Amino acid sequence: MTIQKRLFLTSAALAVLTLASPVMAQSDTFKIGLILPMTGPQATTGRQIEAAAKLYMAQNGDTVAGKKIQLIVKDDTSTPDVTKRLAQDLVVNEKVNVLAGFGITPSALAVAPIATQSKTPQVVMAAATSSITQASPYIVRTSFTLPQASVALADWAPKNGIKKVVTLVSDYGPGIDAEKFFKERLTFNGGQVTEALRVPLRNPDFAPFLQKVRDLKPDALFVFVPSGAGTAVMKQFLERGMDKAGIKLIGTGDVTDDDLLNDMGDGALGVVTSHHYSAAHPSAANKKFVEAFKKANNNLRPNFMAVGGYDGMRVIYEALKASKGQGGGDGLLAAMKGQIFESPRGPMFIDAQTRDVVQDIYLRKVERKDGQLYNVEFDVIKDVKDPGKAR
Ligand code: PHB
Q1: 216-270 residue pLDDT tens
Q2: Which of 83, 102, 161, 357 minimizes the number of CB atoms within 10 Å of its CB?
Q3: What residues contact residue 279 under an 8 Å CB cut-off, 6+ apart?
């Protein structure tokens, strides 16, 4: 063959490829736009969810119903305007099939109108304010809600000598949910919230608030801070000798987050929290998950954010399988509703009416196990629906 002829053939082949590839990419690729805080104060959430999503893909393959799964990870730095811009770009230019991630409530809410307008399922893997699922009919949640976690603790506390409580929460959606639902249930149970304190989400200084709590001398301090902020609360709580003054620290599991817990030191021992996931959850499925996650991530312990990401990927994969890639966003969404399966956290399902997660909530106490600090589960409330949806 002459060089000219060979060149001609090559460029002809290239032309065919260039013509064909956008079409092929459309139909053969299934794109998941994963928007996470990879930097900034919620960076641990981003790191955990990205690692979990990649683990799920490594374990389950990257081809589903004949489509190649492509994960596109974007860093929104926990800035809702950035989340929104990234989501718009992913929908319009990348033509993603699913939007997923969302480290904090304001980011999840900023994207809801885009999900609705473009009919793109939005899988919320982290954010946990009750009302999020009502912001778009295209939202499905695989994390948890603050009312779910808080009510269980308000049932446990008065039975365990805790009657007077001061609450301390981050001053935004999930914190306000936690404060409200904990207080209502504790009051119903004959206890009392003597003061409700709110700290700013950004760069909180807990010192003046904790001083106030010390002066008020309640039986316990109930805390909600988002994943990543627990260490600062614990440190200042201990530095002020609150525990020695007879004030117990209780909270939702966000404060004794598995990502940070082991570095909090013995001062964290005995802290009781309620939550949907502990890395110490004693099931075969969880042991397998924790081992595989650590192996793939330089011994990093998965936290509840990782589980939200892992299960979110499962919901997407199974929806794609069930709908065989047909029906677009609406077909996928329909196949997400009602999914029921065993997560590393325990049994869970996606309520078909609310699109929110229904799951077991555990009471846990920080203990040393095999030389490391863990949230050890000692009681369980089965199949908890989000109490925020009942009103
Ligand atoms: C939220 O912003 O909804 C959020 C973030 C971190 C948590 C819980 C809730 O640990």
Answers
A1: 999 999 999 999 999 999 999 999 999 999 999 999 999 999 999 999 999 999 9
A2: 161
A3: 258, 286, 290, 301, 302, 303, 374, 375
The response to whether residue 219 sits with its C-beta less than 6 Å from ligand 1 reads no
The finding on whether 170 has its CB within 6 A of some atom of ligand 1 is no
Q: Terminal CA-to-CA distance of the chain, rounded, Å?
A: 78
Q: Do 219 and 189 contact (CB within 8 A), yes or no?
A: no
Residues 6+ apart with CB under 8 A from 90: 31, 33, 35, 72, 74, 96, 99
Interval between CA 286 and ligand 1 midpoint (Å): 22
Is the four-CA dihedral 265, 271, 272, 274 of positive or negative sign? Answer: negative
Minimal-distance CA residue to ligand 1 atom 2: 104
Count how many residues are written for the chain.
391
Ligand 1, pocket-test mutation among 227, 252, 356, most atoms within 8 A of CB = 227
193 lines ligand 1 (CB under 6 A): no
Beta bridge partners of 72: 33
Residue 78 CA to ligand 1 centre (angstroms):
11
Q: By three-state DSSP, how is residue 171 classified?
A: coil
CB 375 within 8 A of CB 261: yes
Query: How many angstroms does the Cα of residue 203 sit away from the middle of ligand 1?
Result: 15
**DSSP code of 248?**
E
For the segment 279-292, what is each residue's pLDDT rounded down to a tens digit? 999 999 999 999 99
Chain segment 173-210, per-residue pLDDT in tens: 999 999 999 999 999 999 999 999 999 998 889 999 99
